[in-house]
Amino acid sequence: MKDHIEKYTRKLLRDRTAVPESIRFYVMDDGIITNRDDEWLPVFSEVVSGLNITSLLFARSALPFADYLVRRSDPAADRITPKDSEAKTFFHDIPFIRREEWSGRPKRELAPKIIGRLKERKAMVIEDLGVIATGGVTVEQSFIAFSTVFHTTFVKYLLDIATEGFTPAGEREAFDAFRAKWLKPLEAGGLEFSPGPLTGKDAVLRELWRVGRYTVEKGLVDSFFGNISYFDGKTIYISQTASSLDELEGHIDPVPVDYTSTAGLSASSELPAHKAIYLSTDCHAVLHGHPKFSVILSMHCTEEGCDVEDCGRNCTRKRFACGVPIVPGEIGAGGIARTAPPAVKESGACIVYGHGVFAAGRTDFREAFMKMMEIENRCREAYFDLIKNQKSS
To answer: What is the largest CA-CA distance in the chain?
Structure first.
């Protein structure tokens, strides 16, 4: 268990999603195993026991966006409701405890409140203290939940200020600090790609492993989301569902394009979209990631008088972000597999509303990876231009 705690602590530090000194894991074995024996141990020992879970991660987010979402919320609200695909799929909403509910009280009194908020949810926010993320069975699950909160609150907060402007005190300064200090240039320097066409199973697997790691390391996807595949003309080699793109060794499924075997049973749920792209184009590499600014701009719509209630499913407008088509669609044969392939055929890439980017390469992954990186860089620039114009208006 301690090895798992160390592994996912390293990933949090690599991803720069948590304040290093705030990271606390609590794992139930014969007793509670933790990396920090301090005043929070009695609190979260009670929470782990009360929820009957195996793992809990408590850490302060590296960015204050979740706290600002709490402050911007209706005074009667007790949860954040993001509308991106990951939030709707994994969380539905994110409960929170406001600062006034805990400030000045003994920490132990928080345990019943936390248990109550997490009875039906995987993660929550305590304003000005941190994010609590749980794992029913593994340490990995608590890491995934924390990463999802970071992603969804990042997307929702930046989308909200693009549409509503800055409101609580300190937001502008925090936003400027985020841009100057946390955000890093998105560059491909030092990355190597095998030129295509890729021949032989071993060569394909090695490249899938390598490009999967690149996608995570460059922040184009949180490690447990997104998917990647290569088509050799007969077989689609695709990452397995719920696999981590930075740990794909042993987690690639070879799926015959005619489905003549059961190899695809554990494949990514977006296999139908990958297959449809291959059958409608001359491409052999597909990369799907969740770059944050691309997701934000896909959801930023200024259409007036629109009566569509679920844009992610039902938007009928032809929309673009930085020249890249935006398509609606849910995971599955009737959703993204129907809307994404025509857009990829026309443009080489598309952004799925609230979800992420599909980028294709004709013979190898260099083209697909560079497309995704270029799209995210353009969307990042467009987003900050939007905020700049908002500030000066």
So the answer is: 65
